[in-house]
Amino acid sequence: MPRSRLTMKTLESIPEGDGSMLDRTVIVYLSDGAETHHSRCYEWPFVVIGNAGGRLKTNGRYIQIPNYGRTGHQTINTLYNTLMHAAGTPRNDFGSLDPNLDEDMHRGPVQGLFG
What we know:
The protein is mostly loops. The protein has helices at residues 8-13, 76-86, and strands at 15-16, 19-20, 27-30, 46-49.
């Protein structure tokens, strides 16, 4: 029995509103190994495809968050907060806080990605 696969082409073929389901979709690829084989988990690469019907400012950009603990640094929590904002259920906190970082590095959406 063939397995069914949901692909980007499938999403593009499903009408939704004035576009397609793909127009309102966000796909997130992430590494399960952070920056190195024996990671300290300071850097986590993510690829975000789509803009959630215009609610995310992806526009083919590359966004690099400043390194751990530096001014402007944001945690993975803020990416998840961003996705929650884009889904229409805004949250400004998600998950556990790193006690070595200022709380504001964990709060709100990623600067420049949502809004």
